[in-house]
Amino acid sequence: MLKFKSTINMRGVEVKMVNEEIKTEIEEIITNPQLTFHQRKHQLATYAESLLNYVPISKEAAFAKENGIICDLFEGHAPYRPRYILPDYDKAIKQGSKFLELDPPKDLDEAINFLTILYTHVPSITGYPVYLGNLDRLLESFSEKYDDDTLYKKLKLFLITIDRLLPDGFTHANIGPEGTRVGRLLFKLERELKQVVPNLTLKYDQEKTSDELLIEGVKTVFEVGKPHFANHQMITSDLGEKYGVASCYNSLKEGGGAHTLVRLNLKKAAKEHRGRPQEFLDTTLLKYVKLALEVIESRAEYLVNKAKFFEHNFLALEGIISKAKFSSMLGIFGLKECTETLLDDNAHYGHDKEANKFSYKITDKILEILDKTEISHAEGNSNKAMFHSQSGIDLDTDTTPGTRITPGEEPDLFNHIKVVAPHHSKFIAGVSDIFHFEGTIRNNPKAVCDIIKGAFKEGMREFTFNLTDGEFVRITGYLVRRSDLEKYKNDESTRYTTTPLGEGAINIQGVLKRKRRMINHERNPWFN
Questions:
Q1: What is the mean pLDDT of residues 240-254?
Q2: Which of 263, 314, 347, 461 could form a Cys-Cys staple with 343, CB 3.0–4.6 A?
Q3: What does the mean pLDDT of the chain come to?
Q4: In this structure, what DSSP letter does residue 97 have?
Q5: Residues 119, 162: Cα–Cα separation, whole Å
Q6: DSSP character at residue 49
Q7: What SS3 class is residue 413?
Q8: DSSP per residue, 430-496
């Protein structure tokens, strides 16, 4: 427990002075050469919040949290803003903003100016907006009077502004599912500018998305590691048409979001279990899911009724977001290790049929518990927590992200997809698997398109790939540039807040160990 001691300042007013340990830790943040001014300020604010008492939870939940079975992803002891906010930008553009003193934009310049200003006022766990909207659809109606060259220049300046103003890899924009002139130009510009921000998702719908747009997306990945591809039909069946993919593969309702994301370390939960594997589902797993939901509820309660975010923030007061569209997320990670811990020594998730089948039982059971358990402040998902396959953080030593297969242990591409796809339909709030392709695939973008289509037919919710020889390295839902990693290693600061996270993930999670795919050497029934 951190303790304070009282003293008297020069004006004779009693103040609180922190102990030496706290002062040392604060000074380490202030003097860290690897952090920019804004990064230092954000870490100082996070540190200050950590000095408050944690939101009320039971002793059992506190024990699980302290021992890493439950993890709140360092959201802070007293949440005062939702973790993820997805504003309804279309509504904001149509009505304007009284708080920001902005009228509804009438042309493209005003629309870009409106969005740029609004972005800087959207809070999140990172301090930057995690969702910028469906950019092509937002701007398409304003673009009609401009020729391609003029539109190209205006969009180019907009993308540069976003990257420089919001230097966080979790800042995310969507394109699609229909093709638009703005969408095609955005892909072209991404290939030219080679920026980390914004991260991108292409919503793919086999009935609405042309092969031309899909290939544009694939070619853009070749250059900058983005976009990743979302199964639009599957997600709309869960969330409706007005959804966004934000931050780290998080599918949430537009105009809403998630109060909090609390995750369950299935590996550690399995190590706590005493008994047969089947008993784990009905006893140990049930216990820790319930404790995680307790933490979720307490955090959401504090945000809503103590910090009163929705009563004070202009986004809610002006209807740009609505509490009725928010829920909270329960994430899982370490499914691979959990499965193998509970079964015999020969179990190998991703390769062994029995291990794979048991892994489906685990995710089925968690979903069943969530569907039967109502929680408060979750109107956006019928008063239930949203299930999420959490894609890991840089501190997850020897624990595989989400429901993925450990990097370096993946089977051939076809069987890899067949193993993980049955999990995807369960994760309404997002799930991810990342495939590492050799650079030779640049010569055959259509082959990648066929793989994406085939993966969605198998039931994948989202598909993400990366090239082994590219400047951009996909860590999880965010990207880092190799050149920025080198700067960070040399104690230089970089603009992007996610560079330190990427460096840690490469060293600890083995991101670069993902199996390299040479498409022409692997069995693939989806090729024409």
A1: 95
A2: 347
A3: 91
A4: B
A5: 9
A6: H
A7: helix
A8: ----EEEE-GGGGG-HHHHHHHHHHHHHTT-SEEEEEETT-SEEE-SSSEEEHHHHHHHHTT---S-
Query: Distance between CA 316 and CA 255 in Å, rounded?
Result: 9
Dist. CA 201–CA 211, nearest whole Å: 16
Characterize the bridge pairing of strands 131-134 and 84-86. Answer: unpaired
Residue 264, classed as helix, strand or coil, is: strand
Q: Tokens representing 154?
A: 């205006």
pLDDT digits (tens, 9 = 90+) for 51-69: 999 999 999 999 999 999 9
Predicted confidence (pLDDT) per residue in 330-351, tens digit: 999 999 999 999 998 789 999 9
Asked if residue 349 lies in contact with residue 340, where contact means CB atoms within 8 angstroms, the answer is: yes
For the entire predicted model, the pTM comes to 0.91
Res 9: pLDDT: 44
The amino acid sitting at 222 is: F
**Residue 495 contacts residue 35 (beta carbons within 8 Å):** no
Rounded Cα distance, 125 and 75, in Å: 7
Q: Name the burial class of residue 293, with classes exposed (0-12), middle (13-18) and buried (19+) by CB atoms within 10 angstroms of its CB.
A: buried
Tokens representing 101?
Answer: 């003193």
Rg, the chain, Cα only: 23
Q: Between the CA of residue 220 and those of 69, 181, 199, 212, 467, what are the distances in Å? A: 39, 16, 12, 12, 11
Distances (CA, A) of 213 to 102, 217, 283, 460, 474: 34, 6, 48, 20, 22
- Distance, in Å, from the CA atom of 483 to the CA atom of 481, rounded to the nearest integer, reads 5
